[in-house]
Amino acid sequence: MAQTVERVSLARENPIGPGHGLGSVTDKITDIILRRPIGLGWVLGLLTALGLLGALHLAIGYLLYRGTGIWGVNIPVGWGFAIVNFVWWIGIGHAGTLISAILCLLRQPWRNSINRFAEAMTIFAVMCAGLFPLLHTGRPWLAYWMFPLPNSMGVWPQFRSPLIWDVFAVSTYATISIVFWFVGLIPDLATLRDTAKNPVIRGLFGALAMGWTGSARHWKRYESAYLLLAGLSTPLVLSVHTVVSFDFAVGIVPGWHTTIFPPYFVAGAIYSGFAMVLVLAIPIRAAYGVSDFITEKHLDFAAKVMLATGLIVGYGYLMEFFTALYGGAQYDRFLVWNRLHGPYQLAYIGLLMTNIVIPQVLWIKKIRLQPIFLFLISCVVLVGMWLERFIIVVVSLSRDFVTSSWGSYVPTIWDWMTYAGTLGLFFTLMFLFVRVLPMINMAEMKTLVPEAEVHHA
Amino acid sequence: MSAPVYGILAEFDSPHEVISAAKRAYAEGYRKLDAYSPFPVHGLSEAIGFHKDNVSLAVLIGGIIGGLSGYGLQYWVNIFAYPINIAGRPPNSWPAFIIITFELTVLFAGLTAAIGMLAMNGLPKPYNPLFNSDRFERASRDKFFLCIESEDPKYDASGTRAFMESLQPASVSEVPY
Description:
The complex is a heterodimer of chains A (457) and B (177).
Chain A: H1 2-13, H2 22-34, H3 40-66, H4 80-105, H5 115-136, H6 162-195, H7 199-209, H8 216-249, H9 261-287, H10 296-327, H11 330-341, H12 345-357, H13 365-368, H14 371-398, H15 413-436, H16 442-446
Helix pairs in contact in A: 3-15, 4-5, 4-8, 4-9, 4-14, 5-6, 5-15, 6-7, 6-8, 8-9, 9-10, 9-14, 10-11, 11-12, 12-14
Chain B: E1 5-12, H1 15-27, E2 33-36, H2 44-47, H3 55-81, H4 94-120, E3 144-149, H5 157-166, E4 171-176
Antiparallel strand pairs in B: 1-3, 1-4, 2-3
Helix pairs in contact in B: 3-4
């Protein structure tokens, strides 16, 4: 009796469509890379993304030629789009690490089908994020000055500055994300090596798989290493967005100098990251017929995570109001008034609508199970989280303590082109990724099929 | 006939079959043996007598070295190389140094986990005699293998083969070098 109950609950929990075996999981995922013809939709998508990537090249080229003056940044708003987009992109990346590391530690088997492309999303998002501060320095060819390298000037970085903490946090995050992703790929690269018929493709995957055989000794060390990487990535991902929030919170500008920033930033990061996971997962499962692996349950769970983190973000907004009113600092009170009635009023009302009001429809189960609605709501959340960073950066900087130093900020065409261009970079990499590497972790999916269960006699 | 042989490879259809076969082979006295599976099978490495890996120890050491070098770097820069007064903070302002210390701990530990795992596994290893077997391709797909290597002191070509066949595998084959 107890056994029956256990089996029933396992079937309910098992996040993989019925009827799959070890062979069918392998075939379905390797077919996408090795046998599936190139589709028109994929070509059009890639061409669009490549077009935007071209715009990025143009924007960066002109920036290097003329300097950061082509952007809308000036005193008092010296940060502008560069920092808005940096925080937005890096926040998107965090959902990938949450799925691959934190859900791994929490033993959530439903993560197995979405962790691979979520990790790819992390790496590509961090690449886009990294571009912005690099370009914002004005002289990106001197960016190595931020690293502690011996130099003839005898000058060293200022380790008490959150901006230097950020350099270390983001570069560690990028490195560990790539390592974690690659370690996860090794067994699947071996599967591709053994499945591919074309000798060149076989050789390429073979070189990348480094001679992986699936030996029991290797698996044991592999699992230890994977678990440790998950354990290391968990505090790392929390630290990265905490450090990003320190860039603001350590400053004394009204609206930045608050202790709520680290948790509020981390929640916002995961909120926008899950929105991006859904924006990618919904078309992928439709286009590649992998809805047996990325099931409605996955969409439902991701929507619930979005709802929960969105409420934390909402709590953050409420606390900003409360602190301003209860704390009694006139500059903080003015900031709240300025957000509601100042020149960026529309952006703030848009933020409240897109980040707090509209996503509340996710309480309704029917909507969570409708991929189209979920896709649209995720897009709305991505816009909302972008507006949040815009409000934090621009509204606070444009009107701080002294009225005579107030100013305004209007992004130029080059700002918009750079931003759209990073979307092009991101989606170009994503389009290429889904066709050249297994977007679903085969080895982990295999642990979920019924054949994989070990019966203890 | 006496071409050099890497070992005898038996193929199984399910994880519990390969676990019980591995246990029997270990009980029989074979020590130079390994099992292969397309995904991690719990209990398989224990069945071939491999209980403890040293990855976590390496990661601990890597992490400690990372943490010490992270703090050490900042201490050395601020005390010796480039002492500079920032808003009256003491040269060794340790609370401000925690974050980079933490990041370098994670960086070193994470790199040690990945590189250490590969090094202990002997990877990259471009040539492996097992790839000579035409059945072995399925070890990364849907089959489970047990290999008793010819280096095992108890190995003898006919006896080991007979033993392997007594385990009722789906197939048995010799793996040439």
